[in-house]
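STRUCTURE:
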């Protein structure tokens, strides 16, 4: 079985205040298919928590995730505040060739957008 590894890790939307952080890893899922496993570093505040002073922490969570390979959407997901901090996801991307660009776009409930990108390489 060939191992597929991450070549390019992170990027951010130019208008974003901070760069998206996280990582994506790829593995051979058999029969020429590739599986992506990823983690997005995000606080995923559901709006029910309170800070040290007792003031409510506003809701700020990822509500929409789109994963594309070379510009073609292969997965679209709708999340809620019930998803844990630093969410993990695993998606079968289908048959992906070396050099394919995988992009994970996400939108927060606040409207902020960001993304992670990676290029698939087989070593």
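SEQUENCE:
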């Amino acid at each position: 079985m060939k191992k597929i590894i991450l070549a390019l890790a992170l990027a951010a939307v130019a208008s974003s205040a901070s760069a998206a952080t996280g990582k994506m890893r790829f593995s051979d899922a058999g029969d020429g298919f590739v599986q992506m496993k990823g983690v997005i570093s995000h606080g995923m505040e559901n709006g029910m928590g309170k800070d040290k002073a007792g003031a409510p922490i506003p809701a700020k969570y990822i509500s929409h995730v789109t994963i594309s390979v070379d510009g073609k959407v292969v997965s679209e997901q709708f999340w809620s505040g019930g998803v844990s901090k630093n969410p993990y996801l695993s998606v079968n991307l289908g048959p992906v060739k070396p050099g394919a660009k995988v992009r994970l776009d996400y939108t927060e409930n606040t409207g902020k957008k960001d993304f992670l990108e990676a290029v698939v390489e087989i070593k």
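REMARK: The CA atoms of residues 37 and 90 lie 4 Å apart.
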